[in-house]
Amino acid sequence: MYCARIWLTLIFSVCFLFPFPLEGSQVNLRIPHGFEFGISREDALNMIESSRLEVISDREYSNDLRKVVLGGSLSGVTFDPPPDHETRLEFYKDNLMSSSILFSFEDETRFTFAKSELVGDLANVLGDTFEREKMFSYEVLSWNLPDTVVLASLNSKKRTIEIEYIHKAVLERKTAKDLRRKRREDPGDPARQMFVDGNFSAQEKR
User: How many other C-beta atoms lie within 10 A of the C-beta of residue 174?
Assistant: First the structure.
């Protein structure tokens, strides 16, 4: 009975991931957890407000990166009783880049059942070709799909499961900017010499 409830929970998530029937490997991963990739933070907050969910935090990590955490999920879950869970949305330049749901379980039995069912059903939907990395009690499974990276993070010590979807188009823009910034921060860069290294003397004209 409990396994059936876990399976229904995954179906709820898949319904938002795939707005049309699955045909082979043709899937739509643009709407994980009810939020469409690329939407603005304001649009996401309007959706959250209309659903009467609580915003736990809304933090700006840099001029380009912001994370919104809300209690619960947009469409709810079918666990009985429902575990503690929260949705995490990460925006880059006001475009939704990643979406995840973090589940926290009170006991080892519920965590073990959830892990088995969710991982099995994710493999059935996304394919059984994925990478697995494990260190102590922490394990990460990753599916590298054409437009999306899907991560299942499992922590047996804390009894948490996080399912995250990352949109490659937005991630690649962030990665490209990070790389350009690192290149500009080479020791020979004039801006770094003036403002970081404290060398405010003007460069000699040639």
Answer: 16
> Contact at 8 Å (CB) between 7 and 121?
yes
Tell me if the pTM is above 0.90: no
* Cis peptide, bond prior to residue 146, ω within 30 of zero: no
Which residues, at least 6 apart from 153, have a Cβ–Cβ distance to it below 8 Å?
A: 138, 139, 140, 160, 161, 162, 164
Question: What are the average pLDDT values for consecutive 10-residue runs of the chain, which has 206 residues?
Answer: 39 38 43 91 94 92 94 72 88 96 93 89 88 94 94 96 94 86 59 45 44
Confirm if 190 and 203 have CB atoms less than 8 A apart.
Answer: yes
- Angstrom distances, CA of residue 89 to CA of 40, 69, 96, 136, 178: 11, 6, 7, 27, 20
Buried b (16+ CB within 10 A) or exposed e, 82-103: ebebbbbbbbbeebbbbbbbbb
Residues 6 or more apart whose Cβ sits within 8 Å of residue 65: 90, 91, 92, 174
Q: How far apart are alpha carbons 2 and 4 in whole angstroms? A: 5
Look at residues 6, 162, 156 and name the one whose alpha carbon lies nearest to residue 80: 6
Structure tokens at 133: 């990395």
Torsion of CA 28, 29, 35, 36, to 10 degrees: -70
Distance (Å, whole) CA 69 – CA 44: 11
